[in-house]
Fold Glycosyl transferase.
Amino acid sequence: MNRNIITLATGKKFYFDLAINLARSFILWNRDSNIDFYIVTDLPNQLPLDLLNDIKIISIQPNEFGLGFTPKLFLDKVAPPGQTLFIDSDCLIFGNLIKVFERFKGKKVSVVGDYITNGEWFGDIRLICEKFNIPHLPKFNGGIYYLESSEKASEVYSLAREIEKKYDEIGFVRLRNRPNDEVIMALAMQIHNMEPLIDDGTIMSDPQACQGGYEIDVISGERWLLNSFKHPLHQSWYPFKKVEPLVVHFLGSYTQNYPYKREVYRLEKHLNNKLNWHTDLYSKVTIEAPARFKEQFKILFRPVFRLLFGTRRIIKSERIVE
């Protein structure tokens, strides 16, 4: 059975650039794994020379599959035959993915997550489960989806597209004023009895879930993310203290932070045989050092800003800076 990675890059060149970074991390760790990598895009595309022989483009029309998170509800329409792993473009890969395909094999549609029976997750989960007479919903991060080309997968995704039309009526809460693909797919999967691959922290994680800090080196594959119980931003909903996932999801603003920017610079240099002590030092001096200085400056002068302008002012200032 063919094995494929697909990612979406639609609407803005920014997303195509992220997809290129993801593709490079894939090539570094999976060049000889017989896994095909596809970028699904509605943008005029020009692959960098270092990716021309390894990456494939699936061209779609602008807005062909909608805006926002909606294109993720059409993965069955663009996935090549076989096993397909969708990875968000704002991710980087830190190892070989063969074992991930092996763990998912046989699941027609799946995700990495667990179950939620009540509480709030873009809506009142208990009420939504009662409305559809289901015991729970899979809860997951939509940075990864898995599907196998089959009639069942088409049925799940077809239902998901119907659910999106009734998103507000069902009681789901919007994300950035748009329907959130995660809860839509969760409901469609549960109705069709599709099960998640229970999260053990080894496949994917993100700095938002692990706000105790993280370190990454995409060239060596070393990475860890910390969700320390002692940290003031400990995420009680996330069951792991320290993880070393194969895929790190830099969701939100994390692609603008220096760890991500430094590593994609080093990655491009490495694949073009230009990573050496000089270029490595350059990344630390021009990317990492200014960002660290900015962070320390904010920490040092935060009490002063708070004293001068009050809490509301400092919050506004931080949003502008970040």
Remarks:
- The chain has two domains: 3-198, 276-322.
